[in-house]
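ok trying again, last paste got cut off:
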Amino acid sequence: MAYSGLSTWFKDAEETLFNNLGRELVETLITQHFTLYRIDSETTESNFYGESKSKSYLEPIDVISRIQIQDTDVYSEGGVRRMSKGDMSAWVYLQHMTELGIEINVGDFIGYAGKFYEVYDPGYNKDSIKRKFAGDREYYREILAKVVSPDIFKSTVLENE
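nice, full thing came through this time. structure:
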């Protein structure tokens, strides 16, 4: 069992139970998936500030996640209001990320429901009791991403293929 404050009260059998419950939740109840396009940091050249005009990506990976897209009001000329799909929140089970061997970082792209989103908050260092089991062990990560124009991401991916 990995050390945590829970090891005082719960032993290996309980950790296995918690992991199995999380696994069942991910594999049977959550049926949403997104495609993760991670930046290949070894082949992407960046400047002093970490910016790059052309990025290369690793192979896309299918990730199981609970996803919520925020509806936003958009006003066109003349004041006509329409609803537009806005930012994405995705909750990913940490053990699932470990099994896939992935880390999600700022600047990675997510494909979901025909749209692309750029990750601006990969969910690290958020001290929230609701994300932890018994207030101690973190078991999921909330990833926040902004919708981007299809021209921005599709053209970047096609250039690299």
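cool. The helical segments are 12-29, 94-100, 150-160. Strands lie at 33-37, 61-64, 66-75, 81-93, 109-112, 115-121, 132-133, 137-138, 140-148.
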